[in-house]
Specification:
It is built from six helices and five strands; from the N terminus they run βαβαβαβαβαα. The chain is an alpha/beta fold and about 150 residues long. The chain has one domain (about 1-145): Ribose 5-phosphate Isomerase B, Chain: A, CATH 3.40.1400.10. It has a five-stranded parallel sheet with strand order 2-1-3-5-4, with helices on both faces. The longest helix is centred in the last third of the chain and has 15 residues, at about 130-145. The chain is globular, with a radius of gyration of 15 Å. The protein starts with a strand and ends in a 5-residue tail after the last helix. The relative contact order is 0.17. The structure holds D-ribose. The site of D-ribose has 8 residues, from α3. D-ribose binds near residues 41, 64, 66 and 69.
């Protein structure tokens, strides 16, 4: 699987651990950041989200302090379904039911080993379709409609 991986400074140590521990099993594109100097997370969220929305990556992983800012930013890109997930049950359900294609993590919140378990489940799980596809179609329609003028 092709994975686009990114973080800001707060997520950099966890991103490095993820690259180290899952890099051998997948084709990883690490889009930065590459150190702990302060950077702006939306820049990295956009890079990963565009890699996924364009099909250059099958899935994306983003790490910031909480995972929240990365999810908010990544979800602005059409076709991206991003969420912060910090447990294995939700990681599986998020892919099987919601077809999550960008996982976000909080490097200041979750421990490395739990984060790696979440990442592994996220990468193993597959969307189950059926009734869940109908619901994703409704979300896509919301995305296509945008905000009506006030
Ligand atoms: C950076 O200090 C922090 O705000 C950022 O990593 C992230 O947690 C935002 O959601």
């Amino acid at each position: 699987m092709k994975i686009a991986l990114g973080s800001d400074h707060a997520g950099f140590p966890l991103k490095a651990a993820i690259a180290d521990r899952i890099g051998g099993d997948h084709e990883l594109a690490d889009i930065g950041t590459f150190g702990e100097a302060s950077v702006d997370y939306p820049v990295f969220a956009e890079r990963v989200a565009r890699a996924v929305s364009s099909g250059r990556a099958d899935r994306g992983i983003l790490v910031c302090g909480t995972g929240i800012g990365m999810a908010i930013a990544a979800n602005k890109i059409v076709g991206v379904r991003a969420s912060v997930v910090h447990d294995a049950y939700s990681a599986r359900a998020a892919v099987e039911h919601n077809d999550l294609n960008v996982l976000t993590l909080g490097g200041r919140v979750i421990g490395v080993e739990l984060a790696l378990s979440v990442v592994r489940v996220f990468l193993e799980a597959r969307f189950t379709g059926g009734r869940h596809q109908r619901r994703l179609d409704l979300i896509a329609a919301l995305e296509a409609a945008g905000e009506p003028p006030q």
